[in-house]
Amino acid sequence: MPLEKILLCDESPADLAYVAQVLGGADCLLLTAYTGEEAIRIAKAEQPDIIFMESAMPGLDGYASYRSLGEDLATRHIPIIFINSKQQKAARIYQESLSASQRLRLLEWPQYEPAQQLFQDAFFAPSGLAALAEQANSPVLVLAALEAAYYYFSNQYGRLSDLHLTAPSELWMLAQTASIALLQEPKKIHPTVLPTLLSGIPCDLQPLLAACKDPQLGSRLVNEAFDGAVSLPSPFSPNRAYCQESYEVAPDLNCLRFTDGKQVFFLVQLLSTADALYFPVDNVFLVLAHINESHVKRLQEKLMKDFAKNVAYATSSNTFAGVIASHSRPSHFYYDVWPALFELAKEAPVLENLPTIIMRKDHDFNDPSLLFSYDKYQVLDSAEIGQIACGENKWFTHIGRHQHLSSRFAYELADHYLLDTVLQAPDDKALAKTARLTGCYPIVWLGVEGQKRCWLEQVEGYAYILNQLSLTYPNLGVIFDGWTMPFTPSEASLSEAEKDHQVVQNILKQLTFEPRYVSVVGETSNTKLVVGHKADFFISNFATGSLHISRLLAKPGFGHLSRTFSEVALRYAMHIHPNPHVYLLPQGYISDLADHADIRHDYLSYSIDKKSFYQFIAERLPTLLATGQQPAIRYFIEPSYSVTYDLRLHVKMATQGNVFPVGAGEDKVLELRQYPVDYLQRQLIYGTFPFGSAEKAGLPGDYLIWLRAPLPRVCYHARELTLMAAHQGQTLTISDVFKVGHKVLDNYFTRMLSGGFAVAFGQCTEELLAIAIGNLQNHFIYIGINEKPTESYDLLCQVMDWDRTLFATLTPIRYELNSSDFSDEELHLAKTMNSFDLRLYEAALEWFNNKLGH
Q1: 686-699 average pLDDT score
Q2: Which residues pair with 246 in a beta bridge?
Q3: Which of 28, 297, 458, 774 is the most buried (most CB within 10 A)?
Q4: Are the CB atoms for 672 and 662 separated by under 8 Å?
Q5: Stretch 3-14: mean pLDDT
């Protein structure tokens, strides 16, 4: 139908004139208005065929005018086209409008400024937007939602109209109803590959990343919060980014919104104080811990569906209301939340001034009122937390300390405090259970699992092991463990506990003796700790299943895990087992579930032959039960250029992470004096330090060392020094390096083992050699020889009682001395300067062969 009458509305006379000029060639009447109010009046009087209207105008803007026209029966039939960008060509708008059949048709998304266009493309799914525009028969709703979200994420609150405030949630509900994907999947970036451009501008993420990795971040934020707001370095400017908002995203996320006044990012908190950083304009998140796409997706959805509330909250003055210290799994609670809560509670003024500590319902695995005599503790569900925040203009921060960012000693202190406090206040249920085990010995803690990563034959297997143990130990007592119950359990938690109860009943049916037993399946942590304190050893899953008995109670015992998960767990020291007499069943005993390619490693179940497992236990149990004293402190000396990375890694795995790296130098060993002796006795002190350092620290112990043939070692080291000099623009020959005075090239082993590292270059003596050989023979429980790797690993595992299969793939450092690479003078210098080391190495070989019985 031809257009006879067109109404143009724009607050800018120049723009209006330009559009009128373009449309002037059309055979129609052009009407003009400069305000929304004027456009409404003219539309009612003149009944134009179509209206071109600028969306952003002072007074009654385009969106409000559109709403008014649409609600009036006299004008609701008139098509309206928004002129949303000055860059659009009026002619193009006009040409496309001729085919319009809808009441309102958005002919093209506006060409925004680069950052806004970047946001639109990154945050919203184009296909979803198109489908919703068609579905709603109202593309202006889509446009308003796009603009509103961008204004919110870029702190442009002044540009938000009433339509903006309602559009995102309306669009979200429309998408949900129509099952249309509205939002793009957030993209994950890793800290090792940081972007240099965010929100269309240069950024520097390193200061922000460093702040988030600070183990004291949680405590620092709480202390700052008392002053009204918290801050982090802005990646977009030299300024700080501030926050006084927290968004509770059900069921377990707390998200802090930071802004430097222009740009916005979110600190996502799930386990720790900093699990991820989310940049909404780019729709990317930087992973720091356990966050994945699904978590950030929930945040996106929360921001859209509660948009008007969120804007009101963001533009209010909000009050710090306390901390959340909570997680749905006991393992994460005790690994991530509990140490941070303990450290916070140690700061008496902080605890006294803290408005509240909140744990979410079904996530409350302990009780701060018991642990710290803190009377402002609350248990709330996610909806209640969200209502307090957005509804009452308050905000919270979550506290947690990721395991890999913390020293193990921090866990040691927290766990000792927890155990001491709980044992001093046992409840009646726990006391009744422990009383039923009076007179039993030994008492075995048996961990069952009716869920993931379980021993598939655990019913028959545990029954067989208990039946065999009862033959040797007629007074055997049994504690069955399983699902850990929060203080306010959900129906889901009760259901999971019932699965483990059924496993216990099935085991009991297969026993051939009348057992003395109690069950702590479905009990709280504190009941488990009181009852488990009586146990003598455990048999349990090595991961979460042994949390209370092994980590918190530090009992000895036997763990089992899938081959796949055990490799990961040991490599990354994921679980704390402080007792040195905890044996993980070697991988050779385990068969992982077949066809497990699509199963997460930590969900994988597995098979174990019950008779082989029992034999493994029986061979070690008498020694384990007889152990009454802690071993001496053990020091593993790593001479430079003598040990491979693989050896370090597998030593860490063999000790189940109980390695204390002290670095290089005697002074590092002296710093050990700040730790309790019993803690050091459960660690392997590992580093490059001279013999005698421990004695100077007043912490004598047993020594281990790994040696390499002196001549290849010193020649390789000398060559490395020439390369380092070349990188610094210096030209040095091998002979030059030998003559410079590097003590590492002058009888290095003799210096290390005699404690005479301070002796001047070229001044080693027969006396020092004699001292070194004497120390080697009298104070070392182990010497590894790089040139004899298989025998060295055999001996190491024999001395330390380690799983030999962990060292199966190791290869020693290989540097075969090729005499043609060095001049006769250089080789002569190397031999002359290391004559004592060559003799010391021969003495070490003799010691080594004697240990092997050669």
Answers
A1: 94
A2: 256
A3: 458
A4: yes
A5: 80
CA distance 103 to 80: 7
Position 86 confidence tier, pLDDT thresholds 50, 70, 90: very low
273 DSSP assignment: S
Confidence (pLDDT) at 509 = 97
Higher pLDDT, 153 or 21: 153
Other CB atoms within a 10 A radius of the CB of residue 627 amount to: 13
What lies within 8 Å, CB to CB, of 584 at 6+ separation is: 542, 558, 559, 560, 561, 566, 570, 656, 803
**Which residue type occupies 602?**
D
Q: Give 241's strand partners.
A: 232
Q: Is residue 374 left, alpha or beta, with left meaning phi > 0 and alpha meaning psi from -120 to 50?
A: beta
**Token reading at 364:** 């409350």
Find out whether 149 and 123 touch, Cβ atoms under 8 Å.
Answer: yes
DSSP 421: H
CA distance 420 to 422: 6
Tokens of 130: 């198109």
Work out whether the CA dihedral 598, 601, 604, 607 comes out positive or negative: positive
Contact 330, 338 (CB under 8 A): no
Task: Examine the pLDDT at 652 and tell me if it is beyond 60.
Answer: yes
DSSP run (H or E) holding 570: helix 563-571
Amino acid identity for residue 679 in this structure = Y
Compute the mean pLDDT over every residue in the chain, rounded to the nearest whole number: 89
The two structure tokens encoding residue 746: 């002058």
Q: Which residue has the tokens 């003055």?
A: 317
Instruction: Tell me if 163 sits within 8 A of 63, measured CB to CB.
Output: yes
Residues 665, 775: contact at Cβ < 8 Å? Answer: no
| Contacts of 201-206 spanning 24+ positions with Cβ under 8 A | 201/115, 201/236, 201/263, 203/235, 203/236, 204/235, 205/235, 205/277, 205/286
- 420-427 mean pLDDT: 96
